[in-house]
Write a structure and sequence with these properties.
By secondary structure, the chain is an alpha/beta fold. The chain is 41% helix and 21% strand.
């Protein structure tokens, strides 16, 4: 682990970071995260060395494929990966096998990134930005979505074929093994032990056989982690409960497609998807870190995108992959201070605050650090 290297080498360390700047606003928000990381290095005596890697639409333009041959190997040679965003309407007409999103799925599989962590936190300074009622917001929102990332319907077998009477028909196979369910389940229970010791497992066990297996494995794990409160919840109910009373959740664990949908919903009840970070981890401390938002091509190049989600993703990288908790705390404190001082990008702007650009927000965070 990086923490072990730190014990051997002291605090002056060189960390190798693969940068996937990506498409749309990706290069802009990654640039601000790099500014923050460099300030952290200056303050705490570290050096961050960056290697740019292509993935997604920009890789299609440069190489004809969303996942160039050397991308995974370059990433594996680094301590962690920081990604901006991929995709956009420019590549919507590409064949299905070379869409930008294919690159994202491919790198998750190649790097074994099976656990996606998405914290959904409503920061006090942004309480007015939440679309929920004040009495609901006042209870607080601080939940961790744990999404299985390399199995399920996104990676299952796909078929498209003609039928004699219904035209073209397609199938997408959702498949899960006990091993895949157990490892994501353990990750959720271990995280809950570090938080408020409550796990909610989301499935569709009243309909899907994969969910019945999911539930049986999770029940077995719950017996092992008897210090953690455990509950099952059907996915449709979970979607309602996140809106009705998100304060009831601590750690929410679910399969790939359900997690994709619910994590976006959870992000919006906090006010803006532009504020929320994510981490995708393998079975070691290695991970890929990215904001929860997309490439937002409509605002790309305008210097108005919110970089905070990417900056907080970099903070997660410091904490989970580089074992630098104090440094991660400093980044999160800087974000909190800038927001409490009343600075906002356009997506989170409210009355009485000062609107700033992407680069100005990055500069303000560096100043607070």
């Amino acid at each position: 682990k990086p923490g072990d290297w730190q014990n051997e080498r002291g605090t002056d360390m060189d960390y190798k970071i693969a940068l996937i700047r990506g498409d749309g606003i990706g290069p802009e928000v990654v640039g601000e995260a790099v500014k923050v990381l460099d300030k952290i290095g200056e303050r705490f005596g570290h050096t961050f060395t960056y290697t740019d890697v292509l993935l997604g639409g920009c890789a299609i333009d440069a190489c004809g494929t969303p996942f160039p041959d050397d991308t995974a190997e370059v990433c594996k040679a680094c301590d962690a990966v920081l990604l901006g965003a991929v995709g956009g309407p420019k590549w919507d007409t590409c064949p299905a096998d070379i869409r930008p999103e294919k690159g994202l799925l491919a790198i998750r599989k190649a790097l074994g990134l099976y656990a996606n962590l998405r914290p959904a936190i409503l920061r006090p300074a942004l309480a007015d930005a939440s679309p929920l009622k004040k009495e609901t917001v006042d209870k607080g929102i601080d939940l961790m979505m744990v999404r299985e990332l390399t199995g399920g319907i996104y990676f299952g077998k796909r078929e498209r074929y003609d039928t004699p009477d219904k035209g073209v028909e397609c199938t997408d196979l959702m498949a899960y093994s006990e091993m895949e369910i157990e490892r994501i389940g353990r990750r959720a229970f271990e995280l809950a032990r570090l938080r408020r010791k409550k796990v909610t497992s989301v499935d569709k066990a009243n309909v899907l056989e994969t969910s019945r297996l999911w539930r049986s494995v999770m029940h077995r794990l719950a017996e092992e982690y008897d210090d953690v409160e455990y509950a099952d919840m059907l996915v449709d109910n979970a979607a309602m409960q996140i809106v009705r009373d998100p304060s009831q959740f601590d750690v929410v664990v679910t399969e790939n497609m359900f997690g994709d949908i619910l994590s976006d919903e959870a992000s919006m009840v906090t006010g803006s998807i532009g504020m929320l970070s994510s981490a995708s981890l393998n079975e070691t401390s290695f991970g890929l870190y990215e904001p929860s938002h997309g490439s937002a091509p409509d605002i790309a190049g305008k210097n108005i995108a919110n970089p905070i989600a990417t900056v907080l993703s970099a903070a997660m990288m410091l904490r989970y992959s580089l074992d630098l908790d104090q440094e991660a705390d400093a980044v999160e404190a800087a974000v909190k201070k800038v927001l409490s001082d009343g600075y906002r990008t356009g997506d989170i702007m409210s009355e009485g605050c000062t609107q700033v650009s992407t680069t100005q927000m990055g500069d303000l965070l560096v100043e607070r650090l």
